[in-house]
Design brief:
By secondary structure, this protein is of the alpha/beta class. Helices cover 45% and strands 16% of the residues. It has helices at residues 22-32, 43-48, 51-57, 70-84, 99-103, 112-136, 162-185, 200-203, 208-218, 226-237, and strands spanning 10-14, 36-41, 62-64, 88-93, 139-149, 188-194, 248-251. The longest helix has 25 residues, at 112-136.
Length: 264
Amino acid sequence: MNHELLKGKRGIIFGALNELSLAWAVAEQCYQEGAQIVLTNTPLATRLGKVTTLAKKLNAPYIEADATSVEDLKKLFSESQKQLGGKIDFVLHAVAMSMNIRRGNDYPHLNYSYYNKTLDISALSFHKMLQVAYETDAIAEYGSVVALTYIAAERAIAYYNDMADAKALLQSITRNFGLAYGQKRHVRINTVSQSPTPTKAGGSIEFFDRFYEISNRTAPLGNASQQDCADFCVMLFSDYTRKVTMQNLYHDGGFSTTGVQMPE
């Protein structure tokens, strides 16, 4: 249902790859709610994914950028403001990758070169993105920035590996940059701790199906879907959450606060 919650707003969506991507669903919902958006991803994602198809569908500019490159990010924010005709009102960071997971290196046996890349791509890219926006004053007053995270940032979750460390760092960046950006421009920064969701990134985690099943059984409301996540992000981008910042918001059907659930 379209409520035009983002009518007149301008946004940048990082990380849409294909129809399974959370960023893909968020981009579609932002468009449905009246926003103008720029889509961005790496040149590799352009070749391997379908993001250009989404850009055409949403009549959205697609600007290639490596989220770990400060120079690319400067060009991205500058060009996005030109394309959209003003400062950016909201940003979604949905960027994550672990070569250790892909190569099957478990946590006690990490490849440290891969580990550094995990942190850079999945967390430090968020700091770089925010720093560029902060220094160039690219985000409008009372703008909203959201990054996607997972409960493994706070709890030991088997097989989530070095991504857990990256998500913990991502949440720390949210708090500390949220303080600075809130004071300077009233820009709010939050993370959304989403339920396990069948995406390309999620599918690379060993025993993902068990993650999904256990979470779905435990959560009183069941897992939050891809579309649920999109709706929640739209709310966080909207003016209805102008005083919500520096929070890690659990969007998991109650999984994060459920202990022992009795069978029906």
